[in-house]
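User: Continuing from earlier, I have the next pair ready.

Assistant: Great, send them over.

User: Here they are, in order.

Assistant: Folding the first of the pair now:
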Amino acid sequence: METSKQLLKKDWVLYHYRPNTTRKTFSSLNDAYRQFWESFHFIAKFSSVENFLALDGQQKRVSNLTHGNDCYVFKHDIPIDWTHPRNIEGGRWIFKYDTTISGSQLDNIFYQSVLCLVSEDCWNEREKICGIAIHIRNKMNKICVWTSDHKNPDEIIKIGKVFKEKIGYTETATYEVHREAQRELRPQPAYSI
């Protein structure tokens, strides 16, 4: 007997960002921008919890990614672009992890983040959430929760608190506004929890 799937309210897409490692001199900013976008690779689209759980285990193991790689899970109709109209007024919660945590811990944190993201019934602010990203770096790994609007502190802080609790984060998480991050290398956090 086949059980019915737990359909999600939105379709979600899993992407892998693998930077082009060949150093190039670009003749224009458009060339650099094009190479950046060519480094994004579609992995899978899922519309149910079961579809996500059925993804190959390798695709859910972010600990296998090398430094400089990213993994994104975004609503299917929202591009991963700060300057896009769906994101320009938004920002992101940043949860930083030391690179000394084990691979299985990092995989579990990402897995719990995705489950929190797609189990939309736990909050009213779900429309404000665009997606999540994990950035694998030499000194510090980051999980980021992107939102579409930074102007309502109560909503933004609630989103941050829900994710912080669900992933068991014990440090201070910070929220940065996309527009500020575009202007400054290290913008001041708009919110902290």
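And the other member of the pair:
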Amino acid sequence: MTTAIGLTARAAWSRTPFCRERHVHFDDDEPWVLDNEHGRDFYWVALHEIGHALGLNHSDRREAIMFAFVKSYDPYLNLNQDDINGAKHLYPLRFCEKFSRQRIRLLRGKKK
């Protein structure tokens, strides 16, 4: 995430033969806070960077978590419909259901 100050956090992912590795990094030098407006809002930045790790790009909607610039502290932080629509586009329900069934089979020791 880039601000007027510079990089505060970033997300990255890479494709391997078996899965995608996803990483979220937070800058140690930032004044991270959890419940007030006197520092960098960890929850907002974390949610934004996890969105990138999932594959979401920046949104042009100011109210969206995936908006490109850091917002001020909001005690009622919520996903915006634009964020939800982006996630649903990348991960449609049928994909998630299929993935869950396959994962359960693997966890139970069954191949198919």
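Worth noting for the second one:
The CA atoms of residues 101 and 107 lie 10 Å apart. Confidence is low (pLDDT under 50) at residues 2-7.
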